[in-house]
């Protein structure tokens, strides 16, 4: 990872766009030009997605030195483990981000299944702020709005409290729930 992302003492923001259950297309949603203007002095951005590598490259190549394509280099889980801030659509993989105890931001709402078979309610899953655009992160990242870990910790306790270090099994269950 260090060969891919030149950290230079900067923090790492990980963006995990999936467009699963999303109300908008994630790549155009998170304005990387604005992200670079707002955060490049303090952060690097690593993008890891389930989308083809050439789609990610369109976005990351333009912002070389700030945004990096992590596809094929790290998994989403590995990226979350090394991140200082985690951003992405409300998906089962992103929900594992609660285990990192790092600030987590959603770019989309959780959309329960229409047949009522969803594991979570919309209110229960709202464990992290939903950001409307790159600018809405500003108040959180610069400390003007203190990040509230209470909902994250409650979710972690309820769904991961009995984990014995094998969260991949829970993740597989959650991924099956999503399908």
Number of strands: 5
Q: What is the CA-CA span between the terminal residues?
A: 31 Å
Q: Could you name the ranges where pLDDT drops below 50 across 5 or more consecutive residues?
A: 20-28
Shape: globular
Summarize the helix and strand pattern as letters: EHHEHEHEHEHHHH
Counted by DSSP, the helix tally is 9
User: Which class of secondary structure composition applies to the elements?
Assistant: alpha/beta
Radius of gyration: 16 Å
Q: Averaged pLDDT, please?
A: 75
Helix content: 25-40%
Strands in their spatial order, largest beta sheet: 3-2-1-4-5
Percent in strands: 5-15%
Question: Largest sheet, described in full?
Answer: 5 strands, parallel
Name its key features.
179 residues; alpha/beta; five-stranded parallel beta sheet; 9 helices; globular
List the helices and strands and how they pair.
Layout: E1 11-16, H1 26-29, H2 32-39, E2 43-47, H3 53-60, E3 67-69, H4 76-82, E4 85-88, H5 92-95, E5 104-106, H6 122-125, H7 138-141, H8 150-160, H9 167-178
Parallel strand pairs: 1-2, 1-4, 2-3, 4-5
Describe the protein.
35% of the residues lie in helices and 12% in strands. A 5-stranded parallel beta sheet has the order 3-2-1-4-5, with helices on both faces. Mean pLDDT is 75; it is low at 20-28. Helix 3 (53-60) links the parallel strand 2 (43-47) and strand 3. By secondary structure, the protein is of the alpha/beta class.
